[in-house]
Write a structure and sequence with these properties.
Elements: H1 4-53, H2 55-80, H3 106-119, H4 123-140, H5 144-155, E1 167-168, E2 173-174, H6 194-212, H7 215-223, H8 234-249, H9 275-278
Antiparallel strand pairs: 1-2
Helix pairs in contact: 1-2, 3-4, 4-5, 4-6, 5-8, 6-7
């Protein structure tokens, strides 16, 4: 027969067993949680090591994250009715042919601002062309102010200009004639890239001067009047603009509206054939 003492003993034993069981479970959970945290920490370290050692993988993840954020932003903008008509493209600035005039030398900046006022164009893209004219002119041994003068007379700094005979771009290069010169720039569509047109135009001008033997005659070749008695005043207009630009570059005060600003309708030779064509013969 079970006594009261036996019941107390059984209850105490059951309680001790339950307490031990709970304690064992707690210790087990603690060990598991420590191990899990350790594994998680190791995983984080491993991921960080991978991303720091593989820049390409890190850039891809950053790009994907930025793309996701932009998509979320555009989705919210569409929901608010304030979305742009076209998707945002932060990299678009890389395609812009423009330079801050403050980054130019004093001489170049003076020329850029004068041209901007004279031809009513923004100073930033003109600054980029002035910068390029100085760099290319130095390599080709052609005065940068002469290069800029030809652009002024040929196109009035319109990079999309096209003449009736097919001369295109800032320096009105005959694209179909000099298509080989555009191969290094990806093809003839580069004729409408201002910097590319400038570079190709200077190359054509240099060839014209070398063929003709003098600057004045080289300009007659360039305009397509090498075999004509009259170049319709083209050489005189270019040289007049050249003199003005040289004065500006020298620091003299020259009104932006000084003299006339004649623009020719491209190579106006009666034969319709430019001396740029003759260079290939």
């Amino acid at each position: 027969m079970t006594t009261r003492q036996d019941l107390f003993s059984l209850a105490r034993h059951t309680r001790d067993s339950a307490s031990l069981f709970v304690k064992d479970i707690g210790n087990g959970l603690l060990v598991v949680s420590h191990n899990t945290l350790a594994l998680l920490g190791l995983a984080v370290v491993a991921v960080l090591l991978v991303f720091t050692s593989q820049a390409g993988l890190r850039e891809k993840l950053e790009s994907a994250t930025l793309g996701w954020l932009h998509a979320r932003q555009e989705a919210r903008a569409e929901a608010d009715g304030s979305a742009l008509l076209v998707p945002a493209e932060p990299e678009a600035i890389a395609r812009a042919t423009a330079t801050d005039p403050r980054g130019l030398s004093r001489q170049q900046a003076a020329v850029a601002h004068w041209l901007a006022r004279r031809y009513r164009v923004a100073p930033e893209p003109v600054s980029r062309l002035v910068q390029e004219a100085w760099a290319v002119g130095q390599r080709a041994k052609v005065e940068p102010t002469l290069i800029l003068s030809i652009m002024a007379i040929e196109s009035g700094f319109n990079p999309f200009a096209q003449s009736s005979v097919g001369a295109q771009g800032l320096m009105q290069v005959m694209t179909r004639v000099h298509d080989d010169k555009y191969e290094a720039f990806g093809g003839t569509l580069a004729a409408f890239d201002p910097v590319t047109n400038l570079r190709v135009g200077v190359q054509v001008l240099k060839e014209c001067i070398q063929r003709a033997g003098s600057l004045d005659e080289g300009l007659r070749y360039y305009v397509g009047a090498a075999n004509l008695a009259d170049d319709t005043g083209y050489t005189a207009r270019v040289m007049a603009e050249h003199d003005l630009l040289k004065a500006v570059a020298a620091g003299r005060a020259v009104p932006a509206n000084a003299a006339a600003r004649p623009l020719r309708e491209a190579a106006s030779a009666p034969t319709g054939e430019s001396a740029q064509v003759a260079l290939l013969r």
